[in-house]
Amino acid sequence: MPSATPPATPPATPALEVEDVSVSYGKFLAVESVTLTVGAGECVAVIGPNGHGKSSMVTAVAGLVRRGGVVRVFGQVLPAASPGAAVRAGLVLVPERRHLYPALSTRDNIMLGSYSRTRRIRARQAWQDVSWVLGMFPELARLLEQQAGTLSGGQQQMVALARAMAARPRVLLLDEPCLGLAEAVARRVYDWLGEMTRTDMTILLVEENPVHALLVADRAVRMYKGLVERAEARPA
Amino acid sequence: MNRPGVSRPGVSRPGVSRPGAKRDPVPLGAAAGITVAGGLVLAAMNGSYLGLTVTTGVAYAVVTVGMVLQLGYSRQLAFSQSVFMGVGAYGTGVLETRYGFGSLESLLAVIALAAAASLLIGAVITRAPGLALALATLLLPLFIYQLATDSGWLGSFSGINGVLPFWSGPDYEATLVRSGIVSVLLLGLAAGVVLRVMRSGIGLQLMAMAEDERLGESIGVSLRQRRLEVFVLGSVLAAVGGAVLASTQGLVTPDVLSESAEITLLLMVFVAGRKSVAGAISGAVVIEYLTTSTSFISTNLGIIEGIVLLLILLIEPDGVAGAVDRLLGHRTDQWAASLRAWSAARLQARAHSTPESAERELAAPGHGTRDVEARGGGDGGGS
Amino acid sequence: MSEFLNLLAAGLTSGGIYGIFGACLAVWFRVCNVLNLAVGDFAMLGAVGTAWLTQTAGLPFGAGIAVALAGVGLVAWLFDRVVLHLAFDRGAGAHGIVSVFFYTFGLSLLLEGAARAMFGTDVFGAPAIWPGPALAVADFHVQRAGLLVIALAIVSGLLLWAYLRFTVSGRAASACGESVLGSRIVGIDSAKFRRRIFIVTALLAALFGIVESPITGYTYASGPTLSLIGVVAAGFAAFRQPGRAVAAGLAIGVAEAMLGGYVSTSYSDVLLYAILFCIIIVRPEVLGLGPEPA
After folding, report:
1. How many domains does chain A have?
2. Does any domain span residue A215?
3. How far apart are CA B182 and CA A190, in angstroms?
4. Is residue A121 a part of any domain in this protein?
5. What separation, in Å, do the N-terminal and C-terminal C-alpha atoms of chain A show?
6. CATH (domain of A201)
7. Which candidate in A25, A56, A209 is best for mutational testing of the B interface (most B CBs within 10 A)?
8. Domain-embedded: residue A9
9. Predicted ipTM of the assembly
10. Average pLDDT for runs of 10 along chain C of length 294
11. Does C292 touch chain B (CB under 8 A)?
12. Rounded-to-integer distance, Cα B115 and Cα B126, Å
């Protein structure tokens, strides 16, 4: 009897597919064409010198600037200019320089991370739904009532991460998470990132410093002049 | 003019004054040009009604030139120009008719009065954020106008008559032309002063301050002092404009301090171009002509003003002068680029002022400089 | 004593208007960092529009109010959809401190001019919602419309405060004004918040105009002074806190009434504005404005 060929296992849907994405600001082409794929649970670092389109690329993937090309999250196509849709699909961006709400309290900053997904009307209830993130960032517990603008850079970065986690992301985009932070705080951020990589979270990390990135990344992709270079560095 | 290493004529090296360096000829040239050209125009009009309108426009132009510095360059929101114009006009009227001052004396006195008043107001308010100044000066016309109209001493609603012209002549027409020439001379001086400030290191500091106050502070701009200086200069120029107005018309009425006067001034500045001295001057003259000449415009003034202001804000925020500038070339881009280069150079100089900061710069390779390069190189698309 | 109470009642009435305008300004500024200088003109349109519709065009009272409010809502929606959308969503046009004042300033000029063209220079008073003579308790008299204004001011002030403080939507609205990018990242549509709150505050202002105009009477030119006092009241609340703005407005109204009653009727306004001016000049910290955003 001829042996039945075993049914091919369908390839797992990649967590994030970026296909031929381009970004222009007026006449200036920031990103010429980026195509990359991030598998579920992977952590991919995007490295390369500043000013070559890394930030523009992730910002566009998150739906914050107009882009050409296609972005898919677990197979679902994301509309081009809708950050809300991206968050609802499970794609959350932690932007460069954080962009918190300085006059609002830490609690409100974190709670608003879940804005797209919450059905709550009262702020207190919405907070109770997301207060679990304090488990990841216990140092924020005593800072809840403080205005976010008065926090230190490192504390603000924690709040930004907590805000992102409040949206229960499946794919996390981080743009230069340690920009302007002291070394000790950067280590704290990377410790947390390391823990995240051990969960089923998918991470796309933009980092200027390749040493930091390769601490947590499974692989790296280099962007130069708006394009992804073919060669991929593998951690030693 | 062809000495090596010296800036090209018409472009002053930002922020650097070296002994023996060529003085920037533009302010003086503009002052002289305005005086001569204006004088010729007024002589040609020979005291006609058109000449009167143009001279009235010149009075407003003195004020708007100051507003270019305040509103256009330094983005200082103050709604007090019409009030200071009133100080100038009423001051001239009172001093000349009740105390027998001559034209020159009353002009100097009015300048001193405006400087003192604006210093007093500005001394405290410039410590606070700009919105506080805006708020305070919004209130100013409200009670000053009523004070003027209620006060018998200031002539109540009819105002003060019998203000002396700057320079009398044998008859009405000649007086108008001669006084007009003096007015144009004052305008030239005002334009020269403002241009000199705009094109100096202080001018760049003002632009930096307007762009980003924290950046400005970090490169050593004394915010409070600059704000105060700009406020005082703008107020003094407004007072001079008021004196010119009073001398031209021979009388002072409370309209000069009303809210609608302030609105007219704002419109002149916005429509003509709030960053351009030439724009402010031509705008003042043209709009003064338009508002007084056609009855269609005066009856529907509110609607027209509103629509024009909105169109200007949306389509061409730098006004007609801005549009002209864009068509003619990229001078303002050059100034903006030199501002960026200058402030970046200052930032780098400051960043390396301590050994620790220099070390930090080395540890994070090229972060600061690359940002500057990226800004300089990649800015083609952004505004 | 009775004179004091009567003055107090009158002061609270006008103060209620100033306060609610201040609250409207504060809430909207918080959302988009723009001051609505046309708030008084919206009130004027409500009052004059209702009066004209009921008295000249002969509509029944309820219909007159409804049409006037609908008209105000339409104007507000159009202004946001055309001007503010182009200015802020498309990035066209002037920005920075200029945009804080001048877009709505242009609107105010336009509305005033249009009202003059449509309604002429007459004085209008909408019919009273709660008709009848002034209520009297011993020697204390208060106009019924005045009581309505004060009650409405307290209720709407409380509602606005509660919205901002306790609801997710209110927190999101505040976030819009704090960080444009930060709010977009979490999916907040700041353009929608800007538009909705602009329309709501315009309608609220129009309603107050309708309720209060039987007492004072409105002309096409009544808007700017009201807007101005509203801006001052909001200023004393750092342009952020509606509750404080209502309190500031009430204080200004009472001060105005007291100055009119005890010092001088003809100079009460001059004194009031001069006092406010001096307060702001000498003690700008009272406004509570923080350092300006970059």
Report:
1. 1
2. yes
3. 72
4. no
5. 48
6. 3.40.50.300
7. A25
8. no
9. 0.86
10. 85 93 94 93 94 87 92 96 89 74 92 90 81 73 85 93 94 93 93 95 95 87 90 90 92 92 83 89 78 44
11. yes
12. 15
